[in-house]
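Summary for the steering committee. One of the milestones for this cycle was to obtain a three-dimensional model of the protein with zinc ion bound, which we needed before selecting residues for the alanine scan. The sequence and ligand used are listed below.
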Amino acid sequence: MSTTPAPDNDVRAYVSAHRDGFLGELAEWIRIPSVSADPERAGDVRRSAEWLAAKLRETGFPVAEVWETAGLPAVFAEWRAAEPDAPTVLVYGHHDVQPAARADGWRTEPFEATPSDDGARLYGRGAADDKGQVFFHTLGLKAHLHATGRSAPAVHLKLLIEGEEESGSPNFPALLHERADRLAADTVIVSDTGMWAADTPTVCTGMRGLIDGQIDLYGPDQDIHSGSFGGAVPNPATEAARLAAALHDADGRVAIPGFYDGVVALTDRERELFAELPFDEESWLRTAHSHGAGGEAGYSTLERIWARPTAEVNGIGGGYQGPGGKTIIPSAAQLKLSFRLVAGQDPEKVQQAVRDWVAARIPHGIRHELDFFGATRPCLTPLDDPALQALVRAMSKAFDGAKIRFTREGGSGPAADLQDVLGAPVLFLGISVPSDGWHAPNEKVETDLLMKGAEAAAHLWGELAAGTRTAGGEEVQQ
Amino acid sequence: MSTTPAPDNDVRAYVSAHRDGFLGELAEWIRIPSVSADPERAGDVRRSAEWLAAKLRETGFPVAEVWETAGLPAVFAEWRAAEPDAPTVLVYGHHDVQPAARADGWRTEPFEATPSDDGARLYGRGAADDKGQVFFHTLGLKAHLHATGRSAPAVHLKLLIEGEEESGSPNFPALLHERADRLAADTVIVSDTGMWAADTPTVCTGMRGLIDGQIDLYGPDQDIHSGSFGGAVPNPATEAARLAAALHDADGRVAIPGFYDGVVALTDRERELFAELPFDEESWLRTAHSHGAGGEAGYSTLERIWARPTAEVNGIGGGYQGPGGKTIIPSAAQLKLSFRLVAGQDPEKVQQAVRDWVAARIPHGIRHELDFFGATRPCLTPLDDPALQALVRAMSKAFDGAKIRFTREGGSGPAADLQDVLGAPVLFLGISVPSDGWHAPNEKVETDLLMKGAEAAAHLWGELAAGTRTAGGEEVQQ
Ligand SMILES: [Zn+2]
Ligand SMILES: [Zn+2]
């Protein structure tokens, strides 16, 4: 690389100086109600894409295009480094937002952007998820150029900002496959997650995968009388319950043979680092709206939600569910299950293990059908990955040299599609905090953290370019 | 008793001679659509009660009254024997019927009474359940008087014909309590069941009892995301399933401690007699609309449905039940259970056993509520009961000396209320056969069997009067 890394204070000074202008533009974007789930907002989602493409061109991206899909449009932008051998980085985010209405409990207009009196927070749908976290990349990139004196980023930089993430990304895999050549990258940076807390900066190192599906069980051809027949024929509601109850053993482990095959175990170091996080179970339970913690024996709550595969009953139904009683043996019952997967598990193999397990447990007299809705692979970056180390260094600079800790994401998302289709490792750069209220009324973002995000992005391109040079030559122990 | 029992052929001759008139009057009754479940038919239910009371007066009953309830009216009639020390017998049946509409698959008008071409069958709603079986008592009583030359029955005869049986008899227990003095009886004869088959006359010796209720399980205060929280908090749908799955052990026995306390075991003789019945499992499965038999180990299908207590899941529900998937941990789940009880089980003790068992199984973090809808006691007459023996002799005379076998009824009904409130043993005199299609389209009754029912009733009053004389003095082995 041809330039000297700039002193940190150049980045910070630039970001601070442009804070108000940045927040003003973000507010403009928040005012576009780009709700992908609402067909009446399709025009707004398009307007949001066009607004973003224009802003990216203003930022300096030589290429900034609205990409059509079978559904709502995405935005693609590209700015190549001067150095042909620089690594290629793809930033992922989304410009669509969750639905929001004042009546849901918002104290401000959701599609206004309303600062708190002290300016520390900006309220509005998408402030954190994901417009704020996409948009800080524009400020970060300008700070990067300014502080390094470059006229192009230190990496070949691409952005792909989806328009249907809040609707389950139905057309995203197809888009990735179709545009795989233009999207090719060495590293993917997903900016659609968060940190542990404002005073505990963290980097997410992986997401769980997911398979989910439905088992239909059929017994008698019609509901039959439990007096006349009770006790002498199999009951599909009982069989659905037996399947659900047999999912876990007494230790809370998933009891399906083969389920854990290949699971990448937590390292001692990862467990130590998780344990160092200031976790308060009571406050976590409040976030979970739950009244007790419990799960796989031998693991902490954080390990259970971040690093262990699970089986959950999402729905169960069969027979009479109205008021009072009805003494029937139901004709049919249904079970909706989801399985979160972790690195090392192959969704298709787990699907087969579930199929085999279910088939072996269905008794004579019951017919069953099993359908899977989809499969999302897990992703995980090892702690010693050079690109992850570069991200940690960039975050640490933004957070005044603070120790950067590691989290994972228990959910599952398009990150895995990016990893799979592009064949590139996925890193997560996010500065949102749990109190930001994703998908809830009164979503907000901490404006100081938006600036930290911009700073981290400003540092990241240089760190990645440098990290790539040294990759393999330096043993990083974290 | 002052009279000599008449030769059988007098009864048969009388019944045969009055067959056509009897069927004509029954048809008139069937044309009154006394559907208790349909509020728009309330007037027809009343018309049915008044029609029946008038017919009973015509038959000769000095007392025949329409009795009001909080719901639809019942009919009460009384005709005392000349002998003050004669036993008192109460006949129970119902004059209301199940709903029926041509569109449900009826080949004839359900509220017409349509004979088959050969006259062997009479089609119409209520033909078997229960108008035909109530009405044969009028013909039987007249035959009894004619054949014995009596001017009053050999027993103090009472009839109580309910108007809400097909709606769950909501006001029946209250009516029994209110009118207990007028209803007092030594023996109750329920004519609202059937026989094994036209060529296998049987007498039912008991009904199972019933408790049913609902368990509500509450987990998170709202549905929560299975990605963010899955594997770390208890899931109420899983817990509902675990309860349902734990109801039975591997042998199909109910696994609730104390459930079997007091259960009157089948005697070897009862088991032998059940085993002698010409039971065809394939045809039984067709009746059950089921594709496999199964239940408590060590018992036959008939034993399971007639003589063993059971636990059944009538309904289960929780979480997402719409199309496709939704990756949630549901906030709540619900389980509707019913337990059939057999002689020796106390419904209230079983309810307590269920409460204790559920409470002990609910994990930390789940709240539950358990409500029972009701409790019906089981009833069972020992094979050596003198009144049962009298009924067997009466049936045998009607069926040309055929061996009368024994069945039980797996369902639960007002018979138990009669037994409990009146403190009298309950016997079952019914001639309906499984193909009669109770509660189904194209309900019918076999007209020859109606005549057998009338003959059995005609013989029964003398047998009961005689049986009561010899009760305790004669050891009957059947
Ligand atoms: Zn998002
Ligand atoms: Zn009936």
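Key point for the committee: Chain A is about 35% helix and 20% strand.
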